[in-house]
Write a structure and sequence with these properties.
By secondary structure, the chain is α/β, with parallel strands linked by helices. It has eleven helices and 17 strands.
Length: 341
């Protein structure tokens, strides 16, 4: 059909840290959720990766904004700018005189309030979405992992994103029990910054702390198998202001993330305690699935399995699980009752 490009279907995983867009089963965009804005005109100068390079390195004329905080839209204007800009990037391949009719499925945290849900819907509509469907992230993660969410059996998913960790028990296409806690990637990054400030008297920015987390992030002091090389961090000494450097092995990061991971364990235990016994026995049999960027912390599945006595499985490519699930939901918008319009 000649006008097929005028009807577009996009699946968006609007994350605190990254935004992923799927179209026709393919990732067409995977960028950091960040916008650089000119302070005088209020116009968007850069999005995604370009804006991330400017983060923490701007002059007074430019500010970088992360529109989502703790998984929800904190800056409505910047969020709209970002969604609009990303959709435009995806559409720049089809040059046409008409604006396409865009059908969107967007993932949102399961703990979202009515106001937060409306903010996502309004931002998506203002950015050009004609048909906007919303799906809860743990449901999308379960679909993306390949679980049968509509079956009459219990599946448990722990999706550790940038702003929130979503813990949910799913059965018959609905969320039976859920908890959304604000202990996730951003908190781990802040833990690392505080730890370096207190223990090594070195000041580092968010970007460097993020790099340390990726390079040597671990949650147990003894990793089975291959151990990551220690990370050499450089920054100003807080006392003298002189350049300082420290060598950070993964054991130190495991120690510094300990309290936050303990909060995560407590939340998982709490959800399990409230789960109906029949579903609980299904979960013990199938194990619990981990998705999101936080699932990549070394030793997390082992630590949680030891704590809860239920096997934990890390999804393959956990970073994209929610986005893949959103994409599956997009193809079945008529059949999935758990999608919200």
């Amino acid at each position: 059909m000649a006008f097929s490009f005028l009807n577009q279907e996009l699946a968006i995983d609007l994350g605190t840290a990254n935004t992923v867009i799927f179209q026709n089963d393919q990732i067409v965009l995977d960028e950091p959720s960040i916008v650089a804005i000119d302070n005088q005109t209020g116009k968007c100068i850069a999005l995604g990766q370009k804006a991330k390079l400017m983060h923490e390195k701007t002059n007074p004329g430019i500010k970088t904004v992360r529109p989502l905080r703790d998984g929800v839209i904190a800056d409505f204007n910047a969020a709209e700018m970002m969604i609009r800009g990303f959709i435009k990037q995806v559409n720049s391949r089809h040059r046409s005189l008409f604006a396409p009719n865009i059908k969107l499925v967007v993932g949102i945290p399961s703990g979202s309030t009515e106001v937060e849900i409306r903010a996502v819907r309004d931002s998506s509509e203002h950015a050009g979405g004609r048909d906007v469907y919303l799906i809860y992230e743990p449901m999308a993660a379960a679909l993306g992992i390949g679980l049968d969410v509509e079956a009459p059996k219990g599946n448990m998913v722990v999706d550790i994103g940038g702003g929130t960790t979503e813990i949910a028990v799913i059965s018959l296409g609905g969320i039976v029990q859920q908890e959304s806690i604000r202990v996730a990637g951003d908190v781990f990054t802040a833990d690392i910054q505080n730890y370096l400030r207190q223990q090594h008297v070195i000041k580092v920015g968010e970007t460097t702390a993020e790099r340390i987390k990726i390079a040597v992030g671990a949650v147990i002091p003894q990793l089975p198998g291959e151990e990551p090389e220690p990370f050499v961090v450089r920054g100003p000494n807080l006392m003298t202001g002189h350049p300082a450097e420290a060598v950070i092995p993964y054991q130190e990061i495991a120690h510094c993330l300990d309290k936050s991971i303990a909060r995560l364990e407590a939340a998982i235990q709490q959800v399990l305690e409230q789960t109906p016994p029949e579903l609980y026995s299904d979960i013990v049999e199938n194990g619990i699935f981990l998705s999101g960027g936080g699932a990549l912390l070394r030793g997390l599945d082992k630590r949680l399995s030891d704590k809860v006595n239920i096997p934990f499985h890390v999804a393959e490519d956990p970073l994209k699980a929610v986005a893949r699930g959103t994409c599956i939901a997009l193809k079945n918008t008529d059949n999935y009752s758990f999608l919200m319009r």
